[in-house]
Amino acid sequence: MKVIEINNITKKYNGRVAVNNFSLAAESGKIYGFLGPNGAGKTTTIRMIMGIIAPDSGTIKVFGEKLSEESKKRIGYIPEERGLYKKYKVSDILIYFAKLKGLSSEEARKNSDLWLDKVGLKNRANSRIEELSKGMQQNIQLIVALINNPDLIILDEPFVGLDPINTRNMKEIIYSLKESGKTIIFSTHQMNEAERLCDHIFLIDKGTKLIDGTIGDVKKKYSKNFVSVEFQNRMLNFDDIDMIENVYYDGNKVEMELRKDSNYNELLETLMKRGNITKYEISESSLESIFVEVVTNGV
Amino acid sequence: MASKTKIVAVTEFITNIKRKEFIILTFLLPLILFMSMVIPLLFMQTVSHEREILGVVDETGAVLPILKERYHDYNIGEIKTAVEARQLLENDSISGYIVIPKDFLKIGRASYYSKIQLSSLSPANINLERILSDIVIENLLLDKGIPKETIDKVKNPIEMERITVTKKGEEIETPFAFFGNYLLPLFLFMSIMNAGGYLLNGIIEEKENKVVEVLLSTISSNELLSGKILGLGGLGIVQVGIWMIGIIAVTSLLKIPLVSLEKGVLMMIYFVLGYLFYSSIFAMIGSISTSTRDSQQISAIVSFFVFIPLLLFLGIVQNPNMNFIRVLGMIPPFIPTIMMMRVLLSEVPFIDIIISILILSVALVAAAKIASKMFKIGILMYGKKPSFNEVLRWIRG
Question: Which residue of chain A is at minimal alpha-carbon distance from B216?
Fold first, then answer.
């Protein structure tokens, strides 16, 4: 069973299309990256999944059915615009949200203690939110999303505003959630994090989905083969070599973009005949360069 | 009540009842109001001139003994001449002096001299004028051979009983009405505005702290708004309850009749409907405001309209059933205040009560529907204030 199944949703604001005929499917136990530039429609899509706003057309199914009060309880959500009541005590906030998510007072208290212990904030249960550091507040926000042990976790820009230590903690938590069989969808601008964490990515721009696939598939499809070569002397003109699509010169260094299915060894042999090579390095496109390429030039 | 609405209501109630502002308003404000009325009264009574001397230059020879007998606000000092009296006043030996000319008993004209301007409303002056006027009346009538009993009657010709006839035809003697009763509508209205203010601040706080979206992922905007309104309404009822206990305690202590149960119930109906109506208005303000400053500006304008009826208080006291007041009491934002005052001060025609409650109920349902639509969209607007046209689009939905 698909955890999320979105079919052809469209959402317009005052005639402007925010999300256009968008579809996606997510399975359990995987991490999905939802990528796209600012204003691409990521947050709007996430808000539609969460039932905060309704699509103009199309359908959204969560756990195989239309979003209901029951299925909402199985989702943990950290929105992009997030915050907590500054004057409330930590434990009061956690218990309040846990009860709203359907836990009994006793379960709410138990889970709140459990999670605070897990993130090392047990001694801050009676502190007011405003007395906590930003990193601690982010942790409380995360506990709010996870306190009722949801099966699907949706994180909108979870790494924004986090220092390197908290970024690492967040990644560890995302991994551990995956290991326990949860489905995680997160939106981000940080391509390197997406590349390291995700099993599968969706790339959206101007409301339209451009890429949908596993990291391996995406790289295979969109990656361009680059070779970086350094010669002892400055070399020019490689037009006669068929394998090379584009050449970028930088002193004695030459960046070559190869045509698909080109053979690196064959190229090396050809180049060795031209001059003395001091360095020969094969590199493939990062997710970031694929992102920039696809968003700038289309699929 | 849906369980999520209940959780929000209980949390709002518990959080706000612990607020310092709530405790101060509930306990301190009525005390301050009460003291601000009682202290001047006590002060007036304790202002004494007993140790001061009022000089009397009595050229008639008949007034001074009567003044000495009847006037006790000042010590009376006999002075022979006006010149001597002036000197004593300048030396501050006396507080003032009164010259009673020879023909005073016929013409009734006397002169009062003092360094401090004497207020004509001060009890010392009122007593003095009354005693002097009695002396002139007694003298003039005695000269005509009128019997003493008649003269006494002339001095106090009437005695008025104040009786209110209730709807049931009962006659109730109404001595001086307790001013606390007059304050009741003001207190009830303060409670409405206070709870409405908490609702507004709560919505703005959730927007500013960006906690709204986390909330909306677990609860619908309608459940959230109704939870808030119910929780804060409970707070208002507790507040009014505390004030009522205070008023009942004071009235029973002073043996002053309290408003009848029937009137009390009617006022509570207007209170509850008024609260629900105004909380919808405050929810609308919260939905379109992006910051506390924004909301304060808009709610200041609303409060101004709300307090207009209170400015008409004196007019309403004099004639609670005049047509202008009756019409004003049918306009939704004014209904709660005007009707509370009318119910308190008079026997309001039954039809007025039914019509005003109906109008207020319809207005309340409409306001709540609009508020819920505006709240649903407005609560997710951060940083950008919507235009009037945008708000209209939200409402048309």
Answer: A52
Q: Does domain A1-63+151-164+180-217 have CATH number 3.40.1360.10?
A: no
Q: Is the pLDDT of residue A247 over 80?
A: yes
pTM of the model: 0.73
CATH of domain B52-160: 3.40.190.10
Alpha-carbon gap, residue A199 to A221, rounded angstroms: 16
Q: Does A78 touch chain B (CB under 8 A)?
A: yes
pLDDT under 70: residue ranges of chain B: 1-2, 37, 41, 44-50, 118-121, 162-182, 254-258, 382-383, 397
How many A×B Cβ pairs under 8 Å?
56
Which pLDDT does position B175 carry in this prediction? Answer: 47
pLDDT in tens, B333-344: 889 888 888 888
The structure tokens listed for B111 are: 């002169």
Of the candidates B380, B209, B199, B5, the one whose C-alpha atom is nearest the C-alpha of residue A85 is B209
3-state helix, strand, coil in chain A (%, to 5): 35, 30, 35
Give the start-to-end residue ranges of the domains of chain B.
Answer: 4-38+173-396, 52-160
Task: Please list, in sequence order, all residues whose beta carbon lies within 8 angstroms of the beta carbon of residue A272, skipping any fewer than 6 positions away.
Answer: none
Partner-chain contact B213 A100, CB within 8 Å: no
pLDDT band for position A198 (cuts 50, 70, 90) = very high
Yes or no, beta carbons of A52 and B215 under 8 Å apart? no
Contacting residues of A for B213, CB less than 8 Å apart: 47, 52, 79, 81-82
Q: What pLDDT sits at residue B168? A: 64
Angle between helix B292-311 and helix B261-288 axes, rounded to 10 deg: 150
* Secondary structure tally for chain A: helices H, strands E: 10, 14
Contact status of A74 with chain B (Cβ, < 8 Å): no
Beta strands in chain A (DSSP E): 4-13, 16-26, 31-35, 57-62, 65-66, 75-78, 152-156, 183-188, 200-205, 208-214, 225-231, 244-250, 253-258, 277-284
Closest by Cβ to B213, choosing from A14, A82, A88: A82
Tell me which residue has tokens 């209730």. B166
By the CB < 8 Å criterion, does B392 face chain A? no
**Contact at CB, A81 and B382, closer than 8 angstroms:** yes
Question: Measured between beta carbons, which residues in chain A are less than 8 angstroms from residue B217?
Answer: 50-52, 72, 75, 77, 79
Question: According to the model, what pLDDT value does residue B1 have?
Answer: 59
Question: Looking at beta carbons, which residues of chain A come within 8 Å of B8?
Answer: 100
Query: What pLDDT digit, counting tens, does each position of B22-42 carry?
Result: 898 888 877 877 777 677 767
